[in-house]
Amino acid sequence: MTKALLLIDIQNGFCPGGNLPVAEGDAVVPVANRLMLSGRYDFVVASQDWHPANHGSFASQHPGKKPFEMGELSGQPQVMWPDHCVQNTRDAEFHPDLDKSRIDHVQRKGENPAVDSYSAFRDNDRSALTGLSDYLRSKNVTELDLMGLATDYCVRFSALDAVDMLPGVTVRLIADGCRGIDPAGVKQALDAMADAGVEITDSSRIEI
Ligand code: VGL
Ligand code: ZN
After folding, report:
1. Which distant-in-sequence residues (6+ apart) come within 8 Å of 157 by Cβ?
2. Whose CA is nearest to atom 1 of ligand 1?
3. Annotation says 109 is catalytic
4. pTM of the model
5. What number of other Cβ atoms are within 10 A of residue 114's Cβ?
6. Three-state DSSP class for 177?
7. 156 Cα–ligand 2 center, Å
C-alpha cells in the first residue's frame, strides 16, 4: 500500500484575512500538520491556486459583474470570484503555519486565464491536465486521502477527479480537515463525493 495525502489550496487567500476567505479556513492547518507528522503517508502533495492577475474567473475582468454573481468564461457558466491567489502575492502563499517541510510536491493550477481549474487534476473544461494524476501514478499510490479548501469547490472537484482518473485507488475525504464557502454547497458536495465512491471520514478515524 502506498499512501498519499493531498492538501487542497491551504492558502492565505482562502483563510480569514484573505481575498476569498472561507469561514474557519485556518482551522484545517493543524489537522494537516498532524496528519503530515503522523508517519502514515509516503507522499504529501499540496495544490496551490495560482492565478495570473487577469484571470477570467475574476469579476474584475468582467465589466458590470460583481463578485459571487454568475457570469461566463469562454462560453461556460462561471462564478465571478473576487481577485484571489494572484501569482507571487501573499494571498497565494500557503498559510504561514502550514508545515511546508513535509510537502513533497506542489501542484499549481489555474494559470490559464481562459479557464478555471477547481480540480488539482485538470481544468474545469477537462481539456488540460495539471500532471498530478501522472505524478501519483508514477509513485504507485494506492490510497489517496484529501482535505483542504474549499469543500464545495476545489476539494469537491479534486475528489471527483481522483475517483475518475485514478481507477483502483481508494479515495478518502478527511471531513474535519475541510471548510466550505456555502453551507448548502458543502452538503451537496459531500453527497456528490459519497455517491461517486469517496469514503467520507475524519482525522480521528484515520488509521495512523
Ligand atoms: C477555489 C474558488 C475559486 C477553491 C479556488 O480553492 O475552492 N474556489 N478558486
Ligand atoms: Zn481560484
Report:
1. 118, 119, 124
2. 154
3. yes
4. 0.98
5. 11
6. strand
7. 14
- pLDDT single digits (tens) 165-208: 999 999 999 999 999 999 999 999 999 999 999 999 999 999 77
pLDDT band with cut points at 50, 70 and 90 for residue 130 = very high
Pocket probe for ligand 1: among 55, 80, 153, the residue whose CB has the most ligand atoms within 8 Å is: 153
Catalytic residue among 26, 49, 83, 109: 109
Structure confidence by residue, pLDDT tens digits, 38-68 = 999 999 999 999 999 999 999 999 999 999 9
Residue 37 CA to ligand 2 centre (angstroms):
28
Return the percent helix, strand and coil in the chain, to nearest 5: 30, 25, 45
pLDDT over 90 at 142, yes or no: yes
Domains of the chain plus CATH, in order, are 3-51+85-206 (3.40.50.850)
- Nearest atom of ligand 1 to the alpha carbon of 155: 7
Averaged confidence pLDDT in the chain: 98
Say whether 99 is catalytic. no
- Which pLDDT belongs to residue 76? 95
Q: Which of 15, 85, 154, 178 is catalytic?
A: 154
Is 85 designated active site? no
Q: DSSP states of 27-71 as a string?
A: GHHHHHHHHHHTS--SEEEEEEE-B-TT-TTBGGGSTT--TTSEE
Burial of 174 (0-12, 13-18, 19+ CB in 10 A): buried
